[in-house]
Amino acid sequence: FTSTRDDIITFKMMDKHLQSYEQNFTSWTDDVPTCKDSGVGSSSNEIYRKDGRRVPMHSYEDRSFRFRRDEYNLCVYGVFDGFNGAQVSDFVMKRLPAELVLGQLVPDIRDDLVKDMIRQAFVSVDKEYFGLIGHKLAARMVMRSDQQLARDSKLADLDDEVSSGCAATVALILNNKIFVSNVGDCQAFLCYGSHNGISVIPLSVDHNLHNEDERLRLQHLGHRGGDFSAQDNPLGPHWYTRCFGNYQVKGGYKENASLASCTDDPVIAEPEILGPIPVEDNLEFLVIATKSLCDAVHKCTKQEPQKELANLLLHHLQDEPSSSLSTVAQSTVDHIVRMYTEHEETDSTSLIKRDDMTLLVRNFGHAKSDPGSGHPNAQSPNLSQIDNQGQIKKREEKTLTRSSARPRPTRSSTTTESSGIYVAHGRELPVDEHGRIEPYVDFGPFYKLWNERMANGDSTPKNS
């Protein structure tokens, strides 16, 4: 490469222009309505230092969306767990729904065609992302081929950038049927209610080296290395065998000696798709959560995390009946963060670390009276709840007004500390019919003295 340095200058100019393009890039679905029968809660990563301070380990990398098209009787939800940066999760969050909610899926489409379109959307968005960063891939190839440039620290930066990726789980509801597709390990499950409690049905598959089917797929591709060790794992820290992004284990897999024997990309973006699943009358929730959130629940409770998470959601929905679903989801995440922190402070001997957490909830109870929600029971005015014994009971659904849509000014809030106090004491300050906190200080004596003083013509306070 005689003109290597000129090429690098050209790539830098391309990078500058494309960075400007990426900054101006907006989602094609900005005008698509958000599904109001759903909500999202999240918590950013943190590390607890020995001096008591909490600082982020890296930028927030999770993304999500929740869209609804009543004209197609369609709802689409997605959670994206990014790694090595938020470039991929941000791009997929903006582009993937455009492949699904802009008229491609119509009510009379066959189920097999729905699955084909979802599969095609995942694969095409992944390819589109690599096309977007093509200039970085080209610059990286040039630098790797030049011995002098190969020692440049900028090559390491490029390696980090092109290894960015994300796990993803997308749920689609069309004509009262649910389709769930995923790559990576974001969890999805359905919660059904009955008089005996709640039952949980998992919908997602973890795509990593702990999955026997995925190991067999790699072997069929010609991988001869057996199981990867934790010290020498070319698939990255999460061991993902399916994900968005992460060029080094896709188009660049031949560069890695552990993967070079494969005849095709060992890591793919093609999702596993489950469905159609009919929306039944006793369906309470669809939940999508990052693996980090479920792992935190399991570590604290030693119980099945999906069942425990469902119980927490129903608990907070009961405690905050006038709040939006996003407020309920956020209170649930805050509860888990507080619980996890207390557990680690008691049991852990090392620094407390917590990764990004995201929780998306679709509540079918709120939507039962709405014909565009995808629920078949359009006559039911009630919303299922769980009582203190884990039993399902019914409460009357309130009309959503400007005041009731706001989070109630009670002792519960979306902060970890306050939600902890709220849960610990199990008590909240009363509110009036407008959702405002009722007075708890009697100003009667003050107004009596003030009125007497005004009647005497003296409104100037006296020094005590």
Question: Could you explain the architecture of this structure?
Answer:
- With 464 residues, the chain is α+β, with helices and mostly antiparallel strands.
- Helix content is 33%, strand content 21%.
- Strands 4, 5, 6, 7, 10 and 11 form a six-stranded antiparallel beta sheet that branches.
- α1 (4-24) runs antiparallel to α4.
- Residues 13-25 and 366-429 have low confidence and may be disordered.
Instruction: Count every beta strand, where a strand is a DSSP E run of 2 or more residues.
Output: 16
Shape: globular
Structural class, please? alpha+beta
Arithmetic mean of pLDDT: 78
Helix content: 25-40%
Distance between the amino and carboxyl termini: 89 Å
Give the topology string: H per helix, E per strand. HEEEEEHHHHEEEEHEEEHHHEEEEHH
The low-confidence runs, each spanning 5 or more residues with pLDDT under 50, are 13-25, 366-429
Supply Rg.
26 Å
Estimate the strand proportion: 15-25%
Question: Short description, anyone?
Answer:
By secondary structure, the protein is α+β, with helices and mostly antiparallel strands. The protein has eleven helices and 16 strands.
